[in-house]
Amino acid sequence: MSTPNPELVIRRATVDDMPQVLEFVGETYGPGAPFKDVARHRWQFENSPFRPEDETAPSIWLAFDGARVVGEIAVQDGRIWLDGSPVSAGWIVDVMVHPDFRGMGLSHRIHDAIMAERAVLVTLTMAPATRRVAERVGCMTLGPTRQYVLPHRLSAQTVARFLEYKAGIGGPMRRKALRAFNASRLGPMLVSGAGRLLTRALRLRGAFRSSNGFSHVEIGRFPDEIDEFWARARRSFPAIFERSARFLNWRFVDCPGLTYRRFLLHKDGMLKGYLITRVGDAAELPMGVLVDAFADPDEQDALDALVALAVNTLSPDAEYVEAAASTPAWQAALRRAGFVATKTMRPTVVCTDPALRARLVRHADDWHFTKADHDWDQIHPM
Question: Is the entire prediction scored with pTM above 0.70?
Fold first, then answer.
C-alpha cells in the first residue's frame, strides 16, 4: 500500500459541500451516478430517522485534495435490535475513491474517521476493496446471506443483455468467452429456456399455492399497527435491523426515485406480516424485486403466503424475481416457491466498543437480512 498523501484532508461533509460531492459522484460512480442525486443524498444522509439527534451535518465523510473531493464513504444510519435491546449502527455505503488517488490507503483513512463517530458499522454487499477496509480494522464476519432468483419467463434477450454487462466489467478472458457465448445465440436461448422449464415444473408441484385463510390489502403508508406487530415479532430475532413504521415509511414511502408497492397480510383479523415489492426501473433488466416479506419465523404459512403474493404481484411485469435472505425460515420459504440461490454474501461488522463487540460475536450467525437492509435495493443500471 502506498504512503498516504499528507496533504489530503479527511473530514465530515457539510451541507455546503454537497455540490462538490455530487460532482465527485458524477465522475466516479459510473452509470449509477444519475440515480444518486441531491434528493437521494438528503433523504439517505440527512433525513434518516436514526441519525443522532444532535447532528446537523450529512453522514458523509470526505477526502479533499485542495478544494476538490477525491474520496467518499457515507453512512446510512440505522438501529439494530440485539437480544431485544436497541443499538445504534450505521451501514457503510458509497465507498468511492477518484482513480488518480487509488492505492494510497484513502478508503482506510476515511473509514478511520468514521469509526471515531460511529461505534458499529455494518456492510452487507461490498466490493473486495471495501471488505479489505473492514478486515484491516478487525471486523467480524457474519453468517451467509443468499440472493435468490425465480426465472419464471426469462427471455434470451435479457440473458444476452446481462452477459454483455458482465463482459464489460470482466477481464479479457471472461469478456471474450461471454461475448462468444452471446454471439452463438443458442447459449442465451438455452439458459432462458431452462429457467422457464424450472419454473413450470415447480408450479406443477404446487410450490406457488398460497396458504388458505389469509387476506391482504395494499397500503399507501404503514399504519401504527405495524409497531405493535414489530414489537412482538422482533423477539424471535437475536439480531435484526429495525422494521418499525417509522423506518418502513422512511425507507419505502419517502425514498425518492423508487416506486414500491406495500401490502399487509391478515388472518382472522390479526396482522400477520407485510410485503414490499418493486418492478425494475427502465435502466435495469426486466425484473421484479421481493424487497421484504416479514412475518413471525415460526409461522411458515404466513411466509409462504407473502412469497406467493410477491410472485403473483410481480409476474405480470417482470421476467424474473429477485429476493435475498439470511434466516433459514426465509430461505426455506423462497425455495418452496421455486427460487434458486445464485450468490452468497458474507456481511461484516466493525465495532469499537469491546463489550458490545462480545455481544455481537455471540450472534454472528443469527442475523436477519433481506433486500430491505443496507442500501441493497437501489437502481442498478444494466
Answer: yes
